[in-house]
Specification:
The chain has strands at about 1-5, 5, 15, 25-30, 40, 60-65. By secondary structure, it is an all-beta fold. The chain has one domain. The protein has a 4-stranded antiparallel β-sheet, with no helix packed on it. A two-stranded antiparallel ribbon has the order 1-2. A hairpin with an 8-residue loop joins strand 4 and strand 5.
C-alpha cells in the first residue's frame, strides 16, 4: 500500500501497547479478518488498544496525521 507515494514499512504498522506517536486517522486490520478493515482516530501519547476478539493480533496503520485541537495554537 502507498501513502502519498511513500511505500509502507514495518515502521508504519503499530500493535496494541505501542504508544501513538502521531494523532490521526488509523486503519485497523484485524487478525483472521473477523472484522472488515475500518478507520479510527487515535490521539498522541495514548496506547493502541487490543481488540476484544483478536486481542493482540490487531494492527493499526496511520492513514492521515492530524494535530489534536487542544494542542493547536488557536485553541489554547
Amino acid at each position: 500500500m502507498l501513502r502519498q507515494g511513500v511505500p509502507r514499512t514495518v515502521l508504519d504498522i503499530f500493535k496494541p501497547g505501542d504508544e501513538v506517536s502521531r494523532s490521526g486517522i488509523y486503519q485497523v486490520i484485524h487478525a483472521n479478518q473477523h472484522a472488515k478493515p475500518h478507520e479510527v482516530t487515535c490521539v498522541y501519547s495514548d496506547r493502541f488498544p487490543p481488540c476484544r476478539d483478536c486481542r493482540q493480533d490487531v494492527r493499526f496503520v496511520l492513514m492521515r496525521g492530524a494535530q489534536h485541537v487542544a494542542s493547536h495554537e488557536h485553541f489554547k
